[in-house]
From TrEMBL:
Organism: Lawsonibacter faecis
The name this protein goes by in its record: DUF4430 domain-containing protein
Gene3D superfamilies the record matches: 2.170.130.30
Domain of life: Bacteria
Length: 138
């Protein structure tokens, strides 16, 4: 009798967990940012390791940041397992052995998506900042 109750409780817990997961997925797909179709103009500021910066004014049909960056020759097209991996921006290459990397921000706020998943809209401003060290708060 106890074994039946235990199995029933486990099945109920699994059903509740499955329902919660389905709800979370539905919420994610309903709330995720959608790309803007058509032509748009964005500004990308590249902040180099020496503190100098250069602005790129891009006009693009791309729906995602990665495509616009490659199309505008701001970054080299370096495709990794998860999409565009930004290693070189405006001619400066990060050295992973020295914990160097490019931080992507939008209006000063760190973006939580990869460049190939970050939708863009007309008038937005992005920054690529040369960064050293992997210890950071997100």
């Amino acid at each position: 009798m106890e074994a039946k109750k235990s199995k029933k409780g486990t099945l109920i817990a699994l059903a509740v967990l499955a329902a919660v997961l389905i709800g979370c997925l539905a919420l994610y797909f309903a709330m995720k940012p959608a790309p803007q179709a058509g032509g748009k103009s964005i500004v990308v500021e590249v902040v180099h390791g020496d503190g100098t910066s250069r602005e790129f004014k891009l006009s693009t049909e791309a729906e995602y940041l990665g495509g616009a960056l490659v199309e505008g020759k701001v970054v080299e097209d370096n495709q990794g397992d998860y999409g565009l991996y930004i290693l070189t921006a405006d001619g400066e290459t990060a050295d992973e052995g020295k914990q160097e990397w490019w931080c992507v921000t939008k209006g000063g706020e760190t973006v939580m998506l990869g460049a190939d998943q970050q939708p863009i809209a007309d008038g937005e401003h992005y920054e690529l900042t040369f960064t050293v060290g992997y210890d950071f708060d997100v």
